[in-house]
Amino acid sequence: MWSRLLAKGQLILLSGPREMTRPFLQEMAHYAVHNSEGNVLWCDGDHGFNPYEFAERNIERGYDAEWAADRVLIKRCMTPFQWDTVLTKHLEQKLLVAPAGLVIAAPYEALFSTDELKDWEREDYVRFSLNHLKGLACRFHVPIVLGVDMASWCRTHPLLAWGAYEAAASRWTIQRHGDGWSASELVADLVVSSAPVRQASLGDYQPPVWKRMEIPVIPRRQTLRAVERS
Question: Tens digits of per-residue pLDDT, 47-101?
Fold first, then answer.
């Protein structure tokens, strides 16, 4: 399941409300560090990574609290200028010196959507960073996941949201499903009219164009290896 979502060498768009993407990305990072070589590089735009949740997941699954914590490397940002520097300079420098099994940039859109930037600046930052991240994913053969609230971004900055949609190799939306999540992939092509610009939302991307897969939360005291064997 996770291997299909985390395709190596691809830029991946993962959409959902912030309160849902945060725990999902925590689970994704935990899976990656336990099941692949290299580091998990988390470019954090809103202090979304919670080390206590990571430790709790380890304990619940039979590991020491700090197991592999040294391989989850966090770079936090507070301004769009810091965000651009991390995504387009620091990330490449880190990938050059240490292997990575996963890169997360979340929330990708938030700092690029602030009033600190003019419209043309937003467009330049987003276009350049998307092209750069797409190249890094291919060059270093690593999945780069952009956490985005696409429904909100489509309402506020539809052209930027569409640029991210086009740049991604695969696009997923997540929802709570019982004790876990369901992840649905958008596989159909969309047609966009250039005039007039319509305020799009994820409501446009409804089944049957979505293919759904269920991602369970691993029960307490059950290790990841046990789940793989089952």
Answer: 888 899 999 989 998 999 999 999 999 999 999 999 999 999 999 999 999 899 9
Q: Which residue has the tokens 């489509």?
A: 154
* Cβ neighbour number for residue 63 with a 10 Å cutoff: 16
168/157 Cα distance (integer angstroms):
17
Query: In this structure, are residues 23 and 53 in contact, taking their beta carbons and an 8 Å threshold?
Result: yes
230 has pLDDT over 70: no
Quote the Cα angle for 91-57-50, to 5°.
45
Q: Which DSSP string do the residues of 28-47 spell out, in sequence order?
A: HHHHHHHHSSSEEEEEESSS
DSSP 89: I
SS (H, E, C) 153-175: HHHHCHHHHHHHHHHCCEEEEEE
Phi first, then psi: what are they for 214, rounded to 5°? -95, 135
* Domains and their CATH numbers in the chain: 2-229 (3.40.50.300)
Q: Is the pLDDT of residue 170 over 90?
A: yes
Contacting residues for 101 by C-beta, under 8 A, at least 6 apart: 32, 33, 36, 37, 38, 39, 40, 142
Query: What are the tokens at 98?
Result: 């240490």
